[in-house]
Design brief:
The structure is a homotetramer.
Chain A (H helix, E strand, L loop, with lengths): L15 E6 L10 H25 L3 E6 L8 H9 L17 E5 L10 H7 L4 E7 L1 H14 L3 E5 L3 E2 L3 H14 L3 E3 L11
Parallel strand pairs in A: 1-2, 1-4, 2-3, 4-5, 4-6, 5-7
Helix pairs in contact in A: 4-5
């Protein structure tokens, strides 16, 4: 339908987006006990990164599992999670009115989601990935970004892991084999035109 | 993440879903004047079909354009549309608490959406397509269902068109080349186990 | 692997490719009798178009069904077809040493094929579609090109149909709803820099 | 086209396929020196596994990079490689007349290839992955198989790596996070009906 057409050439920001992966989470799964301490450490750098993106006008895109709840929308998932025992792990990085939202059903942020379309539509060619889990969804998403010729940046202190040794290997894989930039959250360049 | 795993073998209903395409609509696009009379005619059969699906426990899945509003969730889109001048075209077929929702960004209900995953996860192998536009999104979605080896049924009186001659050709294409069942809305079999 | 990387920014020709759809064909299927006269009429304009593309350095990409023969490569399929009773429908438009080849398994030239990747890798943003069947694979491929924001041109006299009325409707759908340029084969502009 | 339809319910073997990844290779890329000793060690178990699959009637599917050679078919790629200085790394595991072939353009065996379609068409729900590189294409392909709900088996002695530590981590990731069976090549069960 013609009304559905959009300008694919439109640019927003300067080609970078910050992606927040699976942080809207009730931490009820079986690996939660191992994951939570790492999330706690990653939260402050992640929060600073999100704040900086908002200040600089870099799009912040939350890509989150819907936990099979195809009836719920993202506000309902957020509300549920904010009433869970682990609300303090979600509150600091909650979406604001400008945040974009993409729901995913499987591990990668790209698999059967509209994320690739959203990025290309807005002229975004570089993604900064934060959130969880380093050696799972973050690794898989970095691969799926790289395979699509997107540039990838992963701040090592703003991603959370279950197994430290696998997370270390995952970061090395991203750096070596997916040409990802791995650096501290505070060193991430968001605006290329800075 | 293990918490994200779901039983891919779980069945719901008996393998058929009713898909409602692009009916959450403000009718502000340039073809609206030609489309609206056809929507008005299609609404009563579509309503009866949705009611029957709800009664019989057949999943009803709304797949709808998000009109580029990546910040909004489906309730917000519905609220906006229900306050538009054409709310009476949306009210009769509005989602209920059991409805499933999938947001699409482009013409086909399958292109860069999680619909294929949702269907396979629930054991759904047959889709009944109603909504709009017959010779556009409905045709494209029928093709994308057929290419994925799903069975397709299109009730000719529960789909709305802009151009009648193209809609007629589209229905013949679906019937002849995509093995779709084309019948009246009241003849659509929803439960195979009836 | 690094050896697998290719320059995604490399350009070839000037952004247009000529796609030849499903012409490597033994014409043994049940609609062959209706299709063959239309193929016969489309062959001379198609041949002129292919010759012109070769002269002007426009990439010619054959996208062809593999008929489920996952053991065969495209030369074997071509050899088989050239020994069939309908070799005269294939001979005039056979691939040459410069032709590119993509095998497809289903109706659309894009569904589960590397075509999208090949096009983007070479900076091709516009496709000219010729071959068969107008109201089937050509229509579906035009849609799948349009949904990916590629420009589409369809020379009406270089595509072959089974049903004339459906083919006419398909050409109008492509023109009206997919923004495709529909013109005669001899008017197709191949080099934008002409 | 009706002639393109195939029986999607047809079964071959008993639901398992052996996938040979990127072994048709000239070993000219920059990591070849580190890779070759590992390939040499993996070749005998890989050869025994391929022989056993052929004996037992398990489909053997070669999925191989085309190195950007869209003009060449797989026999040409094989011929070229068999005349290279490293032909002895290819000769022992060369395809035979029954082998199936899928060309890939990027890292994963599933990305923009018809492999998923081929597997579902033949009722294959479990893949045994051998070849190279453990911490790259093998890892990515295991993920893309798992995300599609296929069962995955990886014989640790029939996959070759560049970096041993990353390969070890990759095998643990596949085992722990992708539910892959990791075992010796000689212990791999090919026929479930044994």
């Amino acid at each position: 339908m013609n009304g559905q057409e959009r300008d694919v050439h439109g640019q927003e920001g300067d080609g970078t987006a910050l992606i927040v992966i699976d942080m809207i989470n009730a931490y009820e799964h079986r690996d939660a006990a191992e994951l939570i301490p790492s999330v706690r450490r990653a939260l402050p750098p992640m929060r600073r990164l999100i704040d900086r993106a908002r200040d600089e006008g870099t799009p912040v895109i939350y890509v989150n599992d819907n936990f099979g709840r195809w009836r719920s929308h993202h506000d309902e998932i957020l509300d549920t999670v904010l009433q869970s025992p682990h609300a303090e792990l979600v509150e600091p990085i909650r979406p604001d009115a400008e945040s974009l939202f993409v729901v995913k059903a499987r591990h990668s942020i790209f698999y059967q989601t509209p994320l690739e379309y959203l990025l290309f539509q807005r002229g975004i060619r570089r993604v900064v990935l934060c959130g969880q889990v380093t050696e799972q969804c973050v690794l898989y998403s970095a691969l799926d970004a790289h395979i699509r010729h997107l540039e990838v940046c992963v701040p090592w202190d703003a991603v959370a892991h279950i197994h430290e040794d696998l997370a270390d290997a995952a970061l090395r894989m991203m750096s070596r084999n997916m040409s990802a930039e791995v650096c501290g959250a505070d060193e991430v360049v968001l605006k290329s035109g800075g």
